[in-house]
Each structure stands twice: as structure tokens, then as C-alpha cells.
Amino acid sequence: MNASKISRRWLLNSLGMTIGILVVLIIVLSLAVRGYTYNGIQTAIDSRSEELTNIFADYGRRSPKEFSKAGRQYVENFPGKESMELMVFNSSGKVINTSLGFAPDENEQMPDYKAALQSRNGYGTWTGKLSSGEKVMAVTRVLHSDTGDFVGGIRYVVSLSAADWQIFVIVLMLMAAGLVVIALVMLSSRYFMRSILTPIKEIGSTAKRIAQGDFNARIENIPNNDEVGELCETINDMAKELDTAERMKNDFISSVSHELRTPLTAIKGWGETLQGGGLDPKNFNKGMDVIIKETERLSGMVEELLDFSRMQSGRMTLTMDRIDILAELGEAVYMFSERAKTEGKFLLYEEPAMLSPVLGDVNRLRQVFVNILDNALKYTGRGGTINVAANEAEGFIQVTIGDDGCGIPEKHLPNVKKKFYKANQTVRGSGIGLALADEIMTLHSGSLDIESTEGVGTVVTITIPTIQKLRDHLQEEQEKKQMEERKMNDDSAT
């Protein structure tokens, strides 16, 4: 249905315009041919009638009777009697001789004769139909004596039937040529529309399958390199991305379900054990510690999911304040020191003497440090080392957290900061931690960069501007804006 609508619009617009142009062109050419043909006939008659000026030059001093006699001789000796009819008028306006040999109908109208009588130069012309229905062109020349008396006249009449037939044939030829052009345009349009409508139909069916959840649907017959081909490739890329996102979403749901099930199982198990009673104080306290730790773990996962939801909807807000990033980094390292010892790993921190203050949300920045340190410990084997360092250069503070763990394969590295993406499905985690950390750093006008080599390790660099750097940037923006305003004012004054 949509294809037929497009075809109708194409026919109404393109083909309709073509037909309109051809009709106008045929009409103009037909009129031009008619005018050219009639002008040629008019010129031929005029050239014949101008002979009277020479032939009857001295008849201004002769009598009408002498003109009538000479007029009969002129008609008898006229060489073009086959192509045109001649009539000779006497001084009374009566036809006294014709090249056809018989007198014309007395009721026949002769507007050219009347026009010649009223004209100063004795010339009159007329194109129209006779009482018989024949279309003719007539020219009349009248002569006057030296005293101004009417001596007589000669009328030239040419039938336009043959000329009109030629014009009709030419018009038919023009119409035939127009029909050929329309046929060629229709064939070309049909091929062109088919080259568009066929992929559009396939695009529609493929898009419908994608909308129904079939992300493996692809457009197979992609046309040549044009806009339609680019659209087909874009839809295929979209389907591929949707398929990847669907798999990532399913992996995310599976991972989160597993992550939630583990602490819930521990909490339920120890809860049932404690409910049974009969435990000594040591085991009771152990069970309560497990319940509290797993509850905190659950709370952290829920909070991470809430943060991700805020990030997706653009509702993540920051409480900006002047903070000592060195203190927050030190506290985060301290939080993981005991865990590193328990897991048999080395957490080394090269603490600088002092760093410039930054403008940020203390809880969000701590969340970034915790997330990166947690990943470093998760992906580093027993006996491995995690190095933490911080430095300041050119108005930016850089915190680097590197490990000698399993590393990230090169094919996964460009996607690790995408939501739901997990390069290693065997390690616990929801796959949204790095996406959150990257978003938080972006909101702080900073960045989070990851460099990794599989089997060697990973280095994460967290960059954030100092307060002074932000102030300088803000001042530069204000000065730039003021310069633009002054320039606009100067241009207005000019």
C-alpha cells in the first residue's frame, strides 16, 4: 500500500509535470508551424500582388475600360493559376474575370476587398472560410487614377486545405514524439521506482521482524552505493547493535540474578540456623557477621542499580564541593587493604605529599575509586600486585590504578565502558560499574581511560581538573564571550 502511494505521488508529480511540459511544447510548436506556414503563404501572395505596381504603373492615366482589358490579359497570362485563384474587379467593384473561368457567388463575403478600398495603399488581406466551408487566404490590390478615382483591382485567393493538412500531419508527428517521450519516461520511472520500492519493501518487512524481537533479521539485497543502500546498511547495523544489546541485557539479568542469589542464600541459610537456636556465642556472632556483610553487599548492588537508572534517565545529580581528593583516595585504598591481605594480593600506594583541591562530589568520586579498586582485585590472581599512584600536571590530577592480572582482550577493550558489557563472564559483577564510573567522571569534567594487555594487566587512569583549572577555563570562556559580544556590537555600529 505504501509502495502504491509512492508510485502515485511519483506519477502525479514527475510524470504529470512531464506530460504538462510536453503538451505546452506541442501547442507552442504547432502554433509556430502554423504561423510559419501561413506567413510563407502570405509572403508568396504579397510578392505576386506587388507585381501590380510595375505592370499597371501607367494605368493611373488611363480609363477604367482600359484597366479591365489589361486585367483580363493579366489573368490569362498569370503563371500561378494552379496554386491560386485570381479575380479582376472593374471600377464598379464587379468581378469581370476569374482564373477559374466562372463568376464567384455574389453573396460571398470579401473582407480583404473592402479593406483594400479603405486602405491608403490599396492593400487588404483576409484569412477565413468561404461559404462552401473551404478555408482560404485572400489578398486584394486596388488601383486609383491620378485624380484618385477607383480604376479597378485584383484579388488573389489561395486555398489553405493543403497547408492545414501539412500542419495537421506535423502536429500528429509532434504528438507521436510526445507519446514516445512519455513512454520512455514511464519505462525509466518504472525501473527507477522498482529500484527504490523493492528495497523499501524489504526494509519494511525487516523492520517489522526487528520490531517483533527478531534481531537476527537482515536486509540481504542491498542496492548500489546510494542513499537507499546506506539506509539498508544502517538498519543492518541497528539490528546488529540491538542483538548485541539484547544479549548484553540478558547476560546482565542473569549476572545480577546470580549476584543477588548468592548473598540471599547466605542470609537465608544463616537466618534459618540462628532461628533454630542452640548455637554457641562464637558461631552466633559469625552468623550475624555474615548476615550483616551480605546485607551490605545487597545494599551496594541495589544502590548501583539505582545509580544506573538515574544515569540512564539523566537524573544523576552531584553535590559539588571543594574536596581533598588525596584523602578520599587514601580512604578507598585503606578500605581494600585488608581484603588484599586476605586474598593474598599486594596493594601498593604511592601517596604524594600534596595535591591541589578539586571541585567534586565526594561520595561519587569515592564510588569511582572503590569500583576501580574492586575490579583490580577481582581480576588479579593470588600473589598479584595492584599499584595506586597520583600526580598533578598542567592543572589536572591523575590517579592511576594498575594491576598485573589477566588483562582485557583487545577485541573487548573498546566496549568495556558500555552498559551491561562484561569481557569476563566467569567473574562476578553486573557489568555496569565502569559505565557508572565513566559517567561520573564526565560529570566532573574529567575522564576515565583504560589501557590493557591480555595476560599482562590493566591500567586505569582517572583524570580530573583542579579548582584553579576550572576557574581559568571559566574565565577564558567569559572573555571569549565578551569578545564575541563586542565584535557583534562593532559590526552593528558599522
TrEMBL record:
It comes from the Bacteria. Its EC number is 2.7.13.3. This is histidine kinase. It comes from Caproicibacterium amylolyticum. Gene3D superfamilies: 1.10.287.130, 6.10.340.10, Histidine kinase-like ATPase, C-terminal domain (3.30.565.10). Residues 255-468 form the Histidine kinase domain. GO terms for molecular function: ATP binding; phosphorelay sensor kinase activity. It is found in: Cell membrane. PROSITE patterns: HAMP, HIS_KIN. Keywords: ATP-binding, Cell membrane, Kinase, Membrane, Nucleotide-binding, Phosphoprotein, Transferase, Transmembrane, Transmembrane helix, Two-component regulatory system. SUPFAM superfamilies: ATPase domain of HSP90 chaperone/DNA topoisomerase II/histidine kinase, HAMP domain-like, Homodimeric domain of signal transducing histidine kinase. Residues 475-494 are annotated as: Disordered. The chain crosses the membrane at residues 12-33, 165-187. One of its GO terms (cellular component) is plasma membrane. It catalyses: ATP + protein L-histidine = ADP + protein N-phospho-L-histidine. The keyword Kinase applies. It is a multi-pass membrane protein. Residues 194-247 form the HAMP domain.
